[in-house]
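Table S2 (text version). Query chain:
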Amino acid sequence: MSPPVSRTNNEGAPAERKPSGGARARILLVDDDPVNQMVALGLLRRHGWEAVAAANGKDALQILAKQSFDLILMDLQMPEMDGYQTASVIRQIEAQSSSASGARETTDAVGERTGQRGGRVPIIALTTASQPGVREKCLTAGMDDYLTKPVSPADLYAAVEKYLGSNPK
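Corresponding C-alpha cell output:
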C-alpha cells in the first residue's frame, strides 16, 4: 500500500473530493494524445483518485515495473506499442508473477496485497473505434471493459467504480 498522496488540481489548489468508494485508488492512464491525457487526468483527480499518465505501451510497462495501480485506462491506438499488445504483456507478467509467488505466499496474503483481485489489475480500453469486433478484440487481449471516446465523465466514473468497488488498495 502506498502512502497517502496530497492531491491538487491543475492550479495547485487542493482537489475537490467527492464521495467515492475508490477515493484512494491509483489509476494509470495510457494515452498518446496530450489533450486526452489532460482531460482524463483532470476528471480522475477531480473525483479524488490519484492518476498517472503514460504516452504509450512501452512507457506504461516501465511505470508498472516500478509502481502498482488499482486500475488501468488504456488507449488502443498508440505508437511503439498499442493497447492490445500492452494489455497482453501485462496479463503475461501477472500470470508469471502469480505462479512464481504461489510457492512463497498463501492465497490470503496475495489477495490482501492485491486488493482481493488475485493480482489482476482491471484494464479498461478507451478508444474512438466503435466498429464491430473491437470490444471482442479488447477482451481477447486481456482487457476487462471498453469505453468509446469521447467518454462522458459519468460513464468514466461509473466504469472505474465498477472495477474498484468500495475497497480499493
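Notes on Table S2: The chain has six helices and five strands. Residues 1-22, 103-117 have pLDDT under 50 and may be disordered.
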